[in-house]
Protein backbone atom coordinates (compact mmCIF):
# COMPACT_ATOMS: atom_id res chain seq x y z
CA UNK A 1 0.00 0.00 0.00
CA UNK A 2 2.75 2.43 0.90
CA UNK A 3 4.50 1.87 -2.41
CA UNK A 4 1.35 2.75 -4.30
CA UNK A 5 1.00 5.94 -2.28
CA UNK A 6 4.65 6.81 -2.89
CA UNK A 7 4.27 6.19 -6.64
CA UNK A 8 1.14 8.31 -6.75
CA UNK A 9 2.93 11.14 -4.95
CA UNK A 10 5.89 10.85 -7.33
CA UNK A 11 3.60 10.90 -10.35
CA UNK A 12 1.72 13.93 -9.05
CA UNK A 13 5.03 15.68 -8.33
CA UNK A 14 6.26 14.97 -11.87
CA UNK A 15 3.04 16.24 -13.40
CA UNK A 16 3.24 19.41 -11.31
CA UNK A 17 6.87 19.93 -12.34
CA UNK A 18 5.96 19.55 -16.01
CA UNK A 19 3.07 21.97 -15.62
CA UNK A 20 5.30 24.54 -13.89
CA UNK A 21 7.95 24.30 -16.60
CA UNK A 22 5.28 24.63 -19.28
CA UNK A 23 3.81 27.69 -17.56
CA UNK A 24 7.22 29.35 -17.28
CA UNK A 25 7.97 28.66 -20.93
CA UNK A 26 4.58 30.01 -22.00
CA UNK A 27 5.12 33.16 -19.95
CA UNK A 28 8.61 33.61 -21.42
CA UNK A 29 7.28 33.36 -24.96
CA UNK A 30 4.75 36.16 -24.45
CA UNK A 31 7.00 39.01 -25.57
CA UNK A 32 5.27 42.15 -26.78
CA UNK A 33 7.02 44.56 -29.09
CA UNK A 34 6.05 47.70 -30.92
CA UNK A 35 7.24 48.69 -34.37
CA UNK A 36 9.19 51.62 -32.90
CA UNK A 37 11.41 49.33 -30.84
CA UNK A 38 12.18 46.79 -33.58
CA UNK A 39 15.93 47.49 -33.66
CA UNK A 40 16.25 47.42 -29.87
CA UNK A 41 14.33 44.17 -29.66
CA UNK A 42 16.59 42.56 -32.25
CA UNK A 43 19.67 43.45 -30.23
CA UNK A 44 18.06 42.08 -27.05
CA UNK A 45 17.06 38.86 -28.78
CA UNK A 46 20.59 38.47 -30.15
CA UNK A 47 21.96 38.85 -26.62
CA UNK A 48 19.53 36.23 -25.30
CA UNK A 49 20.45 33.93 -28.21
CA UNK A 50 24.17 34.27 -27.43
CA UNK A 51 23.52 33.58 -23.73
CA UNK A 52 21.50 30.44 -24.46
CA UNK A 53 24.09 29.16 -26.92
CA UNK A 54 26.87 29.73 -24.37
CA UNK A 55 24.92 27.74 -21.77
CA UNK A 56 24.33 24.92 -24.28
CA UNK A 57 28.04 24.80 -25.11
CA UNK A 58 28.95 24.73 -21.42
CA UNK A 59 26.58 21.84 -20.76
CA UNK A 60 28.02 20.04 -23.79
CA UNK A 61 31.53 20.40 -22.42
CA UNK A 62 30.39 19.04 -19.05
CA UNK A 63 28.77 16.05 -20.79
CA UNK A 64 31.98 15.32 -22.66
CA UNK A 65 33.89 15.36 -19.36
CA UNK A 66 31.38 13.00 -17.72
CA UNK A 67 31.51 10.75 -20.78
CA UNK A 68 35.28 10.53 -20.49
CA UNK A 69 34.92 9.70 -16.80
CA UNK A 70 32.54 6.85 -17.72
CA UNK A 71 34.54 5.64 -20.69
CA UNK A 72 37.93 5.45 -18.90
CA UNK A 73 36.92 3.01 -16.15
CA UNK A 74 34.93 1.03 -18.70
CA UNK A 75 38.09 0.48 -20.73
CA UNK A 76 40.13 -0.57 -17.69
CA UNK A 77 37.42 -2.94 -16.42
CA UNK A 78 36.52 -4.27 -19.90
CA UNK A 79 32.89 -3.25 -19.31
CA UNK A 80 31.31 -2.69 -22.71
CA UNK A 81 28.07 -1.26 -21.26
CA UNK A 82 29.99 1.43 -19.40
CA UNK A 83 32.08 2.17 -22.48
CA UNK A 84 28.95 2.57 -24.58
CA UNK A 85 27.38 4.85 -21.99
CA UNK A 86 30.50 7.00 -21.97
CA UNK A 87 30.54 7.17 -25.76
CA UNK A 88 26.88 8.20 -25.82
CA UNK A 89 27.54 10.99 -23.34
CA UNK A 90 30.56 12.18 -25.30
CA UNK A 91 28.56 12.12 -28.56
CA UNK A 92 25.72 14.11 -27.03
CA UNK A 93 28.17 16.56 -25.51
CA UNK A 94 29.96 16.99 -28.84
CA UNK A 95 26.63 17.66 -30.57
CA UNK A 96 25.77 20.29 -27.95
CA UNK A 97 29.26 21.79 -28.15
CA UNK A 98 29.25 22.05 -31.94
CA UNK A 99 25.52 22.80 -32.37
CA UNK A 100 25.75 26.61 -32.25
CA UNK A 101 28.55 26.65 -34.84
CA UNK A 102 26.53 24.39 -37.13
CA UNK A 103 23.51 26.69 -36.76
CA UNK A 104 25.67 29.68 -37.71
CA UNK A 105 27.01 27.85 -40.76
CA UNK A 106 23.51 26.94 -41.94
CA UNK A 107 22.05 30.42 -41.49
UniProtKB/TrEMBL annotation:
The chain crosses the membrane at residues 12-35, 47-68. Keywords: Membrane, Transmembrane, Transmembrane helix. It comes from the Bacteria. This is Uncharacterized protein. It comes from Marvinbryantia formatexigens DSM 14469.
